[in-house]
Design brief:
Helix 6 packs parallel to helix 9 (239-249) and helix 10 (254-265) packs antiparallel against helix 11. This protein has 372 residues and is an alpha+beta fold. The protein has helices spanning 2-24, 111-122, 166-177, 179-190, 194-200, 206-218, 224-230, 233-236, 239-249, 254-265, 270-283, 289-301, 305-317, 323-331, 338-348, 355-367; strands at residues 26-34, 45-55, 58-66, 79-84, 90-94. The N and C termini lie far apart (108 Å). Residues 1-18 form the signal peptide. Keywords: Signal.
Length: 372
């Protein structure tokens, strides 16, 4: 009797713990709409995306998809469950026990094919990214060669596809790495407050830092404190964070944007300077004397041709340059870099200059007449 009591007690404890564990897991259903490069319909895909929260730090997303958008409508469709982490990064795929993926000629995937498919889906830089569905249809059909590339139009590395299963690889890759990934990132971002996102800026995980910057921009968190954290040198010195930071700055009101990029122009980092100058060019800022003087100061010390060329292009696009700016430009005519000096000469040629500066310009023209 005592033994039976302990057995019943153990069973009840197990049931209680199992129920407790189940209570900890939350599944949230999100109705999503997105496009897929293989989708032949003009309408976006409507699907259910499930968010599974095991606890506050363990979350994943999954969605059930068809294994293939078939180019010639003769492919076997199977359901594949795909998983992503909260940053929208593909994690894995799963098949129901009775499901087998197929290659051409109705041949089942081998064990190594499943492993290779998983590796293909993990490769965010796959050659599949830039292919269009029409390029996957075989132009030289013989037998059931509907899952082959047209060699006349496309070349692709063998590691980017399972032989005989290009449509399956293509379809699943664009699910794993397509628009749904940004949808997942945005869902995760909406669930974090500003303090949680700014805390991620100091993470040792670069992908978490990029995510935080991106989501702070989406939330339009442009206050002084947040801007200051993003413009910290510890972040600016990381090349892979520079583009996300500039994308964030481009969302600022124009006056705040200008002040921020003026700070970036003072940095001693050619990669950052190029990105900043390209951003200024794209934003079509109304020229200000402060900005023009900063550009001329940078031009005077620039040793990189791309940076010099970008600055000259910007200054040329401004309708008016002040006398201070013109005088500082004249000084660059003496630069040892003749290409830079010549660019300055042609820029100055369109402006009336004070007498002393005009004489310097004329002298430059006479000295280098054959090279202008």
């Amino acid at each position: 009797m005592k033994a039976l009591f302990f057995i019943l007690l153990a069973v009840m404890c197990f049931i209680f713990l199992a129920a407790y564990d189940d209570a900890e897991v939350r599944v949230i259903k999100h109705q999503v709409s997105f496009d897929h490069q293989g989708n032949k319909s003009e309408k976006p895909i409507e699907a259910s995306l499930f968010e599974v929260k095991a606890d506050s730090t363990n979350t994943e997303f999954y969605m059930d998809v068809n294994s293939v958008f078939c180019g010639e409508n003769v492919c076997k469709l199977d359901k594949v469950r795909m998983f992503w982490d909260p940053l929208g990064r593909y994690k894995k795929y799963e098949l129901a026990e009775n499901v087998q993926l197929e290659k051409g000629n109705a041949e089942d995937f081998a064990t190594e094919d499943y492993k290779k498919l998983d590796a293909i889906l993990h490769n965010e830089q796959s050659g599949l990214a830039t292919l269009y569905p029409a390029e996957l249809v075989s132009q030289n059909r013989s037998g059931n060669a509907v899952d082959a590339l047209s060699g006349a139009t496309v070349s692709i590395h063998k590691q980017d596809t399972v032989e005989g299963a290009i449509w399956t690889c293509y379809t699943l890759w664009h699910y794993a790495n397509g628009e749904i990934t940004q949808i997942i990132r945005d869902i995760s971002g909406r669930q974090k407050n500003v303090s949680e996102l700014t805390a991620l800026l100091t993470s040792a995980d670069l992908s978490q830092q990029i995510f935080a910057i991106e989501q702070l921009a989406k939330k339009k968190e442009f206050d002084d404190e947040t801007r200051s954290k993003l413009l910290d040198k510890s972040l600016l010195n990381q090349t892979l964070l520079q583009t996300p930071i500039i994308d964030y700055l481009e969302g600022l009101p124009k006056q705040q944007y200008q002040q921020a990029v003026l700070g970036l122009l003072a940095q001693d980092d050619n990669a950052l300077l190029v990105k900043t100058l390209e951003s200024i060019q794209e934003q079509n800022l109304t020229s200000s004397n402060e900005m023009s003087l900063a550009l001329v100061e940078l031009l005077a010390k620039a040793e990189d041709f791309q940076i010099s060329n970008l600055i000259l292009t910007l200054l040329t696009s401004y309708s008016v340059l002040s006398e201070d700016v013109l005088i500082n430009l004249v000084a660059i005519l003496n630069d040892q870099d003749f290409l830079k000096a010549r660019g300055v000469y042609w820029l100055l040629s369109g402006y009336p200059l004070p007498q002393a500066e005009q004489q310097v310009l004329n002298s430059f023209s006479q000295t280098h007449a054959e090279r202008l």
